[in-house]
Design a protein that fits this description.
The chain has ten helices and ten strands. It is of the alpha/beta class and 318 residues long. The protein has one domain: Arginase, Chain A. It comes from Parachlamydia acanthamoebae (strain UV7). Its cofactor is Mn(2+). GO terms for molecular function: agmatinase activity; formimidoylglutamase activity; manganese ion binding.
Amino acid sequence: MHKYYQPPEKDLWKGREDGERFHQVIQCLDLSKEKLEFQDKPCYGFLGFVSDEGVRRNEGRMGASEGPFAIRKSLANLALHQLVEAKFFDVGNIVCEDQNLEEAQKQLGEAVASLLNQNVFPIVLGGGHESAWGIHQGVMELHSECAVVNFDAHLDLRPLLEDQWGTSGTSFSQIAEGYKNRGKSFHYTCLGVQKAGNTSQLFETAEKHQVKIVYAENFCLGALGRIQEVISYHKPIHLTICLDVFAAAFAPGVSAPQAFGILPKDILTSLSLLAHSKKVVVLDIAELSPQHDRDGITAKLASNLIAHFLYEHIHIVK
């Protein structure tokens, strides 16, 4: 691991002692010193991406750098149920320092690739949605092509800044360019998109890349069909959730709250389908900004989304 790596903190994992909960089974693993030997159970690794830099460059509300810590604290107290059949590791954070987002993304990709090579399923906790480009760099080391399913109010297909720097709004443009440079195809599905939150130029870019879009107002009718298409035609899948896809009443703690976002319950069947597909190779949750949260409800939403995916996923990988 490089200088941007921060080992895990066991103190973040605390909770009630009245039954099996995440905090009771989490193991802290310092990637700079340890590697996993052969494991007899499915393994999941929680990796934080401590970054506000992409949001800052995108002129959004700052605060996402605290997201990974808030998600861990919320997840710690959730019940395990059948997840006792798996092993869970907190593998620390990649911390964006000195505003050097590009290096932080590179090191995030290296950490993701390291987990995948050790047969550990990465769950990346953000951080701004610039995390997606970093994660996908790691995925590309192992897979020549990987479809992206993004639950997001925004397409995040903005062009790079004049200095050729990326932002929290450029990740999927950068992934598209990465595949173009490799002579491969870019397969991108974005669900929960807000028409008012994306310019005509962004929709033109999406059309150029043949992006499959489901608008927020059509989410309940259109999301499952699109997901079934992805599952039928693509393997593997990078699943990414930007918390601003949800209505502000349920997710106030984000960089760009959405008045007409989707309802949390409406995403559950979609997550179940993806979990059961056996094709998802990495999951990430982005854009939690705890300083803008109310009673920690956005953090609780993030942790419950992770738990729901895991409840469904565990039986597939056993």
